Task: structure prediction
Amino acid sequence: MPNDAVGTLPRLADRDPVVTPEQMAAALVPPPQFADASFASYRPDPDFPSQAEVRDAVERFVADRPVSARRGLFGRRRPAPEPTTSGVYLDGGFGVGKTHLLAAAYHAETGRRTFGTFIEYTALVGALGFQGTVDLLTGTALVCIDEFELDDPGDTMMMTRLIRELAERGTRIAATSNTPPGALGEGRFAAQDFLREIQAMADRFTTLRIDGLDFRRRSTDETAATVDDVAAVLRALPGGQARVTEDRFADLVAHLGTVHPSRYVAMVEGLDAAGLVDVVPFTDQTDALRWVALVDRLYDAQVRLVASGTPLDQVFPESMLSGGYRKKYLRAASRVVALTRV
Result:
C-alpha cells in the first residue's frame, strides 16, 4: 500500500535558510561532484568527435592567458581586447559533459576564478547591487557561468552589462548553455526587442558546439524510478534518517514559492536523500520553473530522490514542453532520472 503518513521525517518545506552576500560569494566554486574535474578525467564519446575537440579547445583557452598588463610603454593604455577573445561558450545538449569541462577550466586556471550557475550570479547582483558585484569580481582572471539562460529582459540587460564591464577589465568568461548565445531568450520574451544587447553579449564568446548522447541515460531506463512507500525506503538507506527529508510534492512546490531560488542551494545543504510523496504533473509554469531550479541544486549536491506517484521526468505536460522553456524542462528530466537511480 502507498504510504500516506507524511510528517514523521523532517520536511524540506520547513527549511527557510538565510544566506548572506558573503556566503553567496564564498559559494562560487564547482559543486562537490566536480571538485576534482579535469581535462584528463573527461571521457569523450568516440562516436562524437566534437567532444574531444571542445575539450582540447577549452584547455587551450585556459592555457593561453592574455597579457595581464593594461598599460604599455610610457604608461600608455593598451587597447582593450577584442570582444570575440573574451570567452568561450559551450553549447550542447544534456549530459555531454559541459559542466565537467567548465569545472576543469576553473581548476586549470591558476589566477583568481569563480564558478557559479547563472542564477547564482544574478542573485549576487540582487544582494550586492550591480556595482558591488562588478567590484567583487574585478581582478578575477576567469568567471565560469553554468546553465546560462536569459528568461526576462532585466536579466538580459544586467548580464550584458556585467560581462561587458568584466571583459573590459581583463576578466575572461567561460559559459555553458543548451542554447546558442545568439538565441538566448527566444520564446520566453520579446527577444527581438533586445537583439542588439543579446548580440553584443554573444559577440564576446567563441561558441563551441558539443554533440553527443546524454550520459545520464546511457545505462539507465528512460524514466525516473518510483516507489510505493517513500518513508520505508528512506529509513532503509545507509546512514539512517539524519540526512533525509520527506514531503508531499504539492507542499514542497508551494514552499518553493516563498523562498528565493538563490537560497535553494542552502535548502538542500547536508542532505543525502529527499523523499517526495504523491508526485503529480505541473499545471502552473511558474511552479514548474521553480522546481527546475531546485532540481539543479539537488543535482549539484547529488541528493538522491525517492518518489511516489508520477515519475519525476514526466511532470512537465506537453503544453510546457512545446514552449520556450523546453530545454530547461528536458534538462531537469534528465537529472531526476539520474537522481532517482543514484
Notes: The longest strand covers residues 273-279. The CA atoms of residues 126 and 172 lie 22 Å apart. Strands lie at 87-92, 113-117, 142-146, 172-177, 205-210, 244-248, 273-279, 304-309.
